[in-house]
Specification:
The chain is α/β, with parallel strands linked by helices. It has six helices and six strands.
C-alpha cells in the first residue's frame, strides 16, 4: 500500500499541471472526494484562489500553463524547468504526501519529457527521504505510441524513477485522493 511510505503529518496532495483542462478535471474529482478545499491559481470556486500562485497551501492544483507563468517563457508542455523547480519546492514541504503530474505528448510538446522529469522526481524523492519522509509521485501520460515521444518509452522512464503512472488523469486524480483520504 502506497500510504505506508508516508509519515503521519503528510496529508496534502499537490498537482502540477502543464495545462488547464487536466488541472480543472483533477479539481472536480478532488472536490467531490476530499473533505478539505482544493486551492488553485485557476480554481473552480473563487474562494479557493491561491493568494500567491508560487506557494501552495493545503491541497493544491497548479495550472503552470496559466499566463502568469508563461509570459516571456515557453509553455510547460515544451519546457519543464518551471515544473521541475516547483516539484522540488513541493518535495520540501513536510506536509506533502503526493505530487501529481500530467505529461502530454505529441507535436508541439517537449521531445522527451520523461527524460527531464524522471531525474527531478528522483531528486525530489531523495529530498523527502533525507528528511525522514516518503514522497509519492503519480503521473498520467496523455499520448500514443505514434507520438514522437512514444507513450511506452515515456511511461517506462517515469516508472523507473518510481512514478506511479496511471492510464488517465482522472484515474491518477482518484488514486491520489485515496492515498490522502485515509489521513483526513
Amino acid at each position: 500500500m502506497l500510504r505506508k511510505q508516508l509519515q503521519p503529518g503528510q496529508r496534502y496532495l499537490r498537482g502540477l499541471f502543464s495545462g488547464g483542462t487536466l488541472c480543472y478535471e483533477a479539481q472536480v474529482i478532488w472536490r467531490e472526494a476530499l473533505s478539505e478545499p482544493v486551492f488553485s491559481n485557476a480554481p473552480l470556486d473563487k474562494e479557493n484562489q491561491l493568494p500567491d500562485s508560487t506557494r501552495s497551501q493545503g491541497h493544491t492544483a497548479v495550472d503552470l500553463g496559466e499566463e502568469e507563468f508563461t509570459v516571456g517563457r515557453p509553455h510547460p508542455m515544451i519546457d519543464n524547468s518551471l515544473r521541475i523547480r516547483r516539484l522540488l519546492q513541493e518535495a520540501g514541504d513536510p506536509e506533502v504526501a503526493v505530487i501529481l503530474l500530467d505529461v502530454v505528448l505529441g507535436f508541439g510538446a517537449h521531445p522527451d519529457p520523461a527524460a527531464e522529469l524522471a531525474p527531478a522526481v528522483l531528486k525530489a524523492r531523495n529530498l523527502a527521504t533525507q528528511s525522514g519522509r516518503g514522497l509519492i509521485v503519480v503521473a498520467s501520460v496523455t499520448g500514443t505510441e505514434e507520438d514522437p515521444q512514444r507513450l511506452s518509452r515515456q511511461v517506462q522512464t517515469l516508472e523507473q524513477a518510481g512514478v506511479v503512472v496511471c492510464p488517465s488523469n482522472a484515474t491518477a486524480s482518484r488514486l491520489v485522493t485515496r492515498i490522502v483520504s485515509s489521513h483526513e
